[in-house]
Each structure stands twice: as structure tokens, then as C-alpha cells.
Design brief:
By secondary structure, this protein is mainly β. Helix content is 0%, strand content 53%.
Length: 203
């Protein structure tokens, strides 16, 4: 257990499991790494560093993040950003029980993905060789509350990939991006989003 009152930098390589790690913020040079599990990681300010978990990730929370990286060989129970996650890379070997952010920009989130072909951000269609197993994202939410005029979309230029998604709500979506973005899954239970200058769409 570690409770840091200030910002953290550098490599923190932990031999065993991490029950609780908290800090004011994390710089881009910060990496928390363990071959075991992380039960709780909390950053009261921005998390701009890397989290590398060898097994299961319990709870992760941060106020915001610019180019943060979160990877786990196992599943992730709950990951949340109170504000904007910009250029987030998140990849877990198992399921994601819950993910939430106020805004998601230029980010990639993968559950159960083993690999991508060169130049791809989405796996090849109907090719189960790209996944460990039938991965699940249980709940995925992008709120889009009080966004600035300079970045008016809740979900912008981002990618979410899993075999199964039970419920996903994206808020306002930028549909005019020049790069591939969106959601990829074999099965989606419920999808809610709002295109520009349009009403909310629920599927």
C-alpha cells in the first residue's frame, strides 16, 4: 500500500501484488508495473503515465489523462476518468466490467485482443484468432457533460473493441473524423449515441 501526497514519476517496479496505490497525479514518465494484480489505483489529478498489470486490475480512477496507458493480462473491474481521457491506450486480456469517462478523444480500448495486423486499429472481421476468448465489456459510458466549444464531442476519433458488449453509451459522437473510429463487437446488447445536430439514437 502506498499513499503519495504529491505527483509520481519514474518506474515503480513492484515484485508482488498492489493492494492500494494513490497519488496526487502521475507524470508521463511514471510507470507502475507488477507481474501480479492491482486491487486499487487512484490518482486525484491527471494520470499521464503507464500502468502495467500482470494479472487482474481491480479499480482505477483518475481526474483526467493525456496519453495514459493501461494494460493488464487479466480482466479489469472498473476504470474511470472523471474528466477527459485523451489518447488513452487500454488493453486487457480478459473482460472490462465497467469503463467511464466524461470525454474520450483519440483513444483505443481493447478487451481480449491478442494482436492487430500492421496498420490496423480494428481486428479483421469474424477472425477469432485475434482474441484470447469471448471477451466482454459489461458497461461502457462516456457522459459528455459541459464540454468546451473547442472540443464539443464526448466520443471523438476513438475505438472500442471486444467480442461482446452488453451496454455502451457514447454521448455526442464526431462522425466527421477522417480516420477509422467507432465500436467493433460481434454482439452489442444496447448502444446509445447522439450524432451531430440530431437526437439521441438508441439501438
Amino acid at each position: 500500500t502506498a499513499n503519495i501526497t504529491g505527483a509520481v514519476i519514474g518506474l515503480w517496479d513492484v515484485a508482488g501484488s498492489v493492494s492500494k496505490f494513490s497519488a496526487a497525479s502521475a507524470a508521463s514518465t511514471f510507470t507502475l508495473k507488477t507481474t501480479q494484480s492491482v486491487s486499487s489505483a487512484t490518482f486525484r489529478g491527471a494520470f499521464n503515465g503507464s500502468l502495467e498489470v500482470g494479472n487482474q486490475l481491480g479499480t482505477f480512477s483518475a481526474a483526467a489523462g493525456t496519453e495514459p496507458s493501461i494494460t493488464a493480462n487479466g480482466s479489469a473491474n472498473r476504470v474511470s476518468f472523471a474528466g477527459t481521457a485523451n489518447s488513452l491506450f487500454m488493453s486487457v486480456g480478459g473482460d472490462i466490467n465497467s469503463f467511464s469517462a466524461n470525454q474520450l478523444i483519440s483513444s483505443r480500448i481493447y478487451a481480449g485482443l491478442t494482436r492487430l495486423d500492421q496498420g490496423q486499429i480494428f481486428p479483421a472481421a469474424a477472425n477469432t484468432n485475434y482474441f484470447y476468448r469471448a471477451s466482454l465489456i459489461n458497461s461502457f459510458s462516456v457522459r459528455g457533460s459541459r464540454l468546451p466549444a473547442s472540443a464539443p464531442f464526448a466520443f471523438d476519433n476513438s475505438v472500442v473493441v471486444a467480442v461482446n458488449i452488453r451496454s455502451i453509451s457514447l454521448g455526442s459522437v464526431n462522425t466527421s473524423t477522417n480516420v477509422a473510429s467507432g465500436v467493433s463487437a460481434d454482439n452489442i446488447g444496447a448502444l446509445t449515441f447522439r450524432p451531430p445536430a440530431s437526437n439521441t439514437v438508441s439501438l
